[in-house]
Each structure stands twice: as structure tokens, then as C-alpha cells.
Amino acid sequence: MRELYIVLYAPSSVQKLIDFLKTVYTVENAVPVVVKPFGAAAQVGVPEAHRISYKLGKPLIILPELKDLHSILNCETVYYVSEEGVNKNLHELLGEAKQRKTAIVVGSGEQEPSRKEIEGFTIVWPREIPRGIPSTALTGILVYELTRI
User: Fold this and answer.
1) Which residues contact 78 (CB under 8 A, 6 or more apart)?
2) How far, in Å, CA of 149 to CA of 134, rounded?
3) Displacement of CA 48 from its chain's centroid (Å)
4) Check: CATH 3.40.1280.10 for 4-148?
5) In angstroms, rounded to a whole number, what is the distance separating the alpha carbons of residues 5 and 39?
6) Tens digits of residue pLDDT in 78-132
7) Model's pTM, two decimal places?
8) Closest among 91, 138, 110, 97 to 5, alpha carbons compared
9) Among 64, 67, 75, 77, which residue has the least CB neighbours within 10 Å?
10) Tens digit of pLDDT for each residue in 26-38?
11) pLDDT at 1 over 80
């Protein structure tokens, strides 16, 4: 399996950041990435997240911008999971993601990226997942399904 990054975009909640991190750490070969944390997540959550990752001996990447997924992590493909995205089969999406260096971006629900920030990304919604599901639950489903394929 190629490197797979699971990305949380713009969290402000410490608890949401920590729950995301712990969820991604349940699956092998997935690396959690946090992009543009703000508020309490930036001030308290990021140091706590680093403490957890260090204690578990697992990687954690914090980036200031979504474009860094291409320019720094060299992702070949970036999927932005959004309710406005094209319906795509979940197993097909994850299967494709495992074939090349990929990032799957989940919005925190607190701040959405601008159109310019997601330019060049593939905007999708897994058709098997009900719309309106919170980001933590969405991450849990993605991670669970990764273990099954």
C-alpha cells in the first residue's frame, strides 16, 4: 500500500482533533494530517496531539495550507470529501487511494475551504454514507472500511 494521508481541515475543537487522531491511528499505514487548525485546536489541541503521537510512536503532520498536500507531501491524488461532491462507491474510492500516494480530506464542519484552496482536488461523496454525518463519524467509517479492503 502506498502512503495514505487522512486529513482534517480547519478544526477549532480540541476534542474533535484528538478524536480524529485516535481514529486514524487505529489503522496501519494511514498518516493523520491536520491542516489549518485554529482557536483552541491550534493552541491546546496540536500540542496534545503531538504528545499522543510521540507516546504511541506514530506520525503526525500539521500543515498550514491544503496546497501543501501536493507541494510538501507530494500526493499524487487528493480527494476532498464533501456533500456537494460526485457520488462515488466507497470501496472504489478507497481502493484507488491505496494504489498511489493519496490524501483524503475531511472538513471539520467548522470552516470549509474556499474553491481556490480545493482547486485541482477530486471532490467526492461516498454514496454509501448518509449526508449530514459529522466529520468524526465520517473519519471512523473511512478508517473502518480501509481495514476491510
Assistant:
1) 66, 69, 70, 102, 103, 104, 105, 120, 121, 122
2) 23
3) 18
4) yes
5) 23
6) 999 999 999 999 999 999 998 999 999 999 988 899 999 999 999 999 999 999 9
7) 0.94
8) 97
9) 64
10) 998 899 999 999 9
11) no
pLDDT above 70 as % of the chain: 99
Q: For residue 65, what is its C-alpha cell?
A: 495550507
- Write out the three cell numbers for 122: 477530486
In angstroms, rounded to a whole number, what is the distance separating the alpha carbons of residues 104 and 126? 12
Catalogue the E-assigned strands of 1-149: 4-9, 30-35, 61-63, 77-88, 102-107, 122-126
Length of the chain: 149
Sign of CA dihedral 29, 53, 65, 83: positive
